[in-house]
Structure formats: structure tokens, C-alpha cells
């Protein structure tokens, strides 16, 4: 018997390598050398001079760190401004800013449920929702993807407190949840509805007000939404939006809010500046959707299999995990950065290239990206 307590790690690493599933960190240069279709910078704001100036200004004024948890020394007037403006922009009564979208999902799922309650969770939900379910002590029913009838059936099997939870736009395929039908099911069954709008904010709804605004559901009494500030808003951090009594409950009970250092002022300042820029330039949201549609039309016209995008994520199928990794590498060599999704990040085991339709891509860049993805596609 080996006395090395980490032998099993080598064993697992070997299995990962055999399955073509090794992940590696690749630090990017400060100045982009590749055409970026891999990041989540949907509106092209992360390097916008107004946004970086706001981040630097906030750090100078408030300090590099928040200095403590929000309930001790980590709340500034800037946090309050961001919360008020986020709630107002997306059409909710109140908002609470946390240190990431991940923490926001853990906070919302755990604080709104607990022992004896039921969570009904879409099979395609983001890992942070899955982890929230695990931490909640509630029972969780995982229902088939985008299936409101299955949600209703699961809710009817339970007496007492219940929460249905879904991504608004699913990270892997870029398809949208059937929000109006889900909201109707939750309303008639007396369940709360939590929608993770990480990929909807800044892209869907009038001027990028998000998926709930687009569906006419923003501000509904039984509806709560979570956001990340790290995608369309080009910053870092997360938020929960909903009725004021829900937000107050989170302040008092959500462990990832209470026991976590507040979001750094630079990130708050950048997110606030992006939100204000989006108000001045609402056309950025529609442009991201138009770029996604153009990528989809041209890639499928070239014979590739893609999912029609509902927001700014374009997902193109690859024949295997190995092929997806090689395809992404070939795109890099040709000057284009694309995402590569493979197990265990994909619930159905199908590997994909994931292209981000940035609002600031030019016609020429779209044409180049399509031509490279086509040219490097594996022959199946
Ligand atoms: C659907 C979804 N929810 C939540 C998150 C987590 O957000 P953050 O990166 O801010 O922690 C992400 C981001 O990766 C996401 O795609």
C-alpha cells in the first residue's frame, strides 16, 4: 500500500488525460493579440476608457479593497448607488451586490429555501445554482431542460415552501428558458421563481434591461433574479434583485453575503459606469444580438451544426472532446480565440465551440471569424 496521500490525484490526472479532458491555464497578454470570441465581454466594455477610468477613480477614492464584509466596513456609498441603479434599470424593487455571480446564486438559492422546502432546478442550470441546491438542505428535483410541465408536476408533488430556478439564457447552448410559462406555473402553484440572468443582462430586453424585462416579468412579487457584473458590464461581482423584503431577508441570512468581503470599489465603480453607458448607448444590446444572428446564419449556411442563439452565445457542435480541443487550438493559431466546452461542463456529454457575439465586432471581424471556424472545422 502506498503511503503517499496524493497518489489518487495522479490516478485521476491519468484518467483525465486519457479522456482528453485536461484543463490548463493560459495567461493572456495585456494587449489582445487574438480576435476575442471567447470572453463574456458581450458589449465590449471591459477596456472602454470610461469604464477603466471609473474603476481607477473608485479605487483611488475608496481604496483597493472593500476592507471588510458588507455588514461591517465593506459597504460604501458606491455600493448603494450601484444597487439602486441596478434595481431601477432592471425593473425590480431592490438589489444586493455580492462579490460574484456565483456568490449571488448561492445566496439566493440557500436563503430562499432550507430544510423541508423543494427546489425545482432545470437540468441545464449553471454550476453555481447546482451548488446552491447542494448547500441549501432542501430537496432538489432536477427536471428536464426547458420543460414547464415537468416543473409543474414536480411542484405538485410537494407541500410547503418551493422555489423553481432556471438560467434565463443557458451558458452551453445559448438558448433561452421559457420564462412566461415558468412564471405562470410558479404563480398558480404558489412557488417562487429565481432566474439567473447572467447572460441576459445587457443583451436582452429594451436597452439590455435583461430577460425578465424582455418577458414583461420584471418586478413580479414572486420573482427574484441574479446577475453577474462580469459579462455585459465588463467588471466583476454579482447581484440579487427582487422585492425589498426578499433583499432584506438576504442581508440577514445569506451566508455568502454575510461572511464574504464586500465587492472591491474598483469593480463597483466599473459596473456602475457600464450601466450608465448602457443607458446612453442602448443600441449595444441589439447589436450583440445581431452579431450572434449573423454568426449563426453564416456558420450553419457553411454546413456546421449550431443552436439558434437567443442572446449573444453561439454554440457550435464538435464531434468529440478531442476534436473540440484541436478545433479551438486551430482557431487560436489562425488568430481567433473561441471557447471550448466539453465534459464535465456539458450536461449532455456533447462537446462544443462557444463563440461570443460581441457588440463591438466589425463586419470584417465577423467575416474573418466565420471563415476561420469553417476552415478549421473537423471533418466528421
Ligand atoms: C449562468 C451563470 N451564472 C452564474 C455565473 C457566475 O458568475 P460570476 O462569474 O460572476 O461568479 C456564470 C458565469 O460564469 C454564469 O454563466
From TrEMBL:
<dbReference type="InterPro" id="IPR015424">
    <property type="entry name" value="PyrdxlP-dep_Trfase"/>
</dbReference>
<dbReference type="InterPro" id="IPR015421">
    <property type="entry name" value="PyrdxlP-dep_Trfase_major"/>
</dbReference>
<comment type="subunit">
    <text>Homodimer.</text>
</comment>
<dbReference type="GO" id="GO:0008710">
    <property type="term" value="F:8-amino-7-oxononanoate synthase activity"/>
</dbReference>
<dbReference type="InterPro" id="IPR015422">
    <property type="entry name" value="PyrdxlP-dep_Trfase_small"/>
</dbReference>
<dbReference type="InterPro" id="IPR001917">
    <property type="entry name" value="Aminotrans_II_pyridoxalP_BS"/>
</dbReference>
<keyword id="KW-0093">Biotin biosynthesis</keyword>
<feature type="domain" description="Aminotransferase class I/classII large">
    <location>
        <begin position="34"/>
        <end position="371"/>
    </location>
</feature>
<dbReference type="GO" id="GO:0009102">
    <property type="term" value="P:biotin biosynthetic process"/>
</dbReference>
<comment type="similarity">
    <text>Belongs to the class-II pyridoxal-phosphate-dependent aminotransferase family. BioF subfamily.</text>
</comment>
<dbReference type="GO" id="GO:0030170">
    <property type="term" value="F:pyridoxal phosphate binding"/>
</dbReference>
<comment type="pathway">
    <text>Cofactor biosynthesis; biotin biosynthesis.</text>
</comment>
<keyword id="KW-0808">Transferase</keyword>
<protein>
    <recommendedName>
        <fullName>8-amino-7-oxononanoate synthase</fullName>
        <ecNumber>2.3.1.47</ecNumber>
    </recommendedName>
</protein>
<dbReference type="InterPro" id="IPR050087">
    <property type="entry name" value="AON_synthase_class-II"/>
</dbReference>
<dbReference type="InterPro" id="IPR004839">
    <property type="entry name" value="Aminotransferase_I/II_large"/>
</dbReference>
<dbReference type="Pfam" id="PF00155">
    <property type="entry name" value="Aminotran_1_2"/>
</dbReference>
<keyword id="KW-0663">Pyridoxal phosphate</keyword>
